[in-house]
């Protein structure tokens, strides 16, 4: 079987604050996207990485890929993304060549996922699961609320049992045909699905969880940049 990784990297990074698109911002001197590409290419199973670039960013992404050391065994493709993560993933899937039968979808915003987590996801797909999600137990208790206007107290509706909840990460791994079918069938909703496995669930196909990793956290807000740079510094120490 051949495995490709699609990396949606077309978001602006609004929650990170003003500046370049999030995937192009540096972590200890290297663009977040390059860290994420290396994290996927570190798996010997991954033969192709498809980067979904920000609008107007495809040329810059191509030159970044050309100017950073990457494994020789891996092929790279760059396509331009869409207005939502879901659209960007779909555009990445559309670029996959024949012969790929396992697809990972990995956020550029999770630049530090360890290769063992990547390989664990691929192994579970190879073992027969059509959709595999790395995830961790939650540290915080979670409340479901009735949303109110900003600043208004929000009534609590329910407290799901924390032991049964998981915070999901990427790379999420899929049987290619299943993921393509999900993206063709599941209706585009609002700002788009935040999770590819959720679209497979809507097809009625089984989704399984394997262990995620603390270092696969998503860089979303400025504090996450501090954590990511500390993790990189610890790796080099
Ligand atoms: N993404 C994408 N295309 C979009 C929106 C998001 O490819 N139209 C990608 C982002 O680049 C990121 C991943 O999806 O790698 C996860 O999204 P998120 O963390 O929400 O990143 P942004 O959308 O860039 O951030 P924000 O929501 O704060 O603007
Ligand atoms: Mg977003």
From TrEMBL:
The keyword Nucleotidyltransferase applies. InterPro entries: IspD, IspD/TarI, IspD/TarI_cytidylyltransf_bact, ISPD_synthase_CS, Nucleotide-diphossugar_trans. This is 2-C-methyl-D-erythritol 4-phosphate cytidylyltransferase. One of its GO terms (biological process) is isopentenyl diphosphate biosynthetic process, methylerythritol 4-phosphate pathway. GO terms for molecular function: 2-C-methyl-D-erythritol 4-phosphate cytidylyltransferase activity. The record marks 15, 22 as: Transition state stabilizer. It holds the Pfam family IspD. CDD domains: CDP-ME_synthetase. Keywords: Isoprene biosynthesis, Nucleotidyltransferase, Transferase. It comes from Streptomyces himalayensis subsp. aureolus.
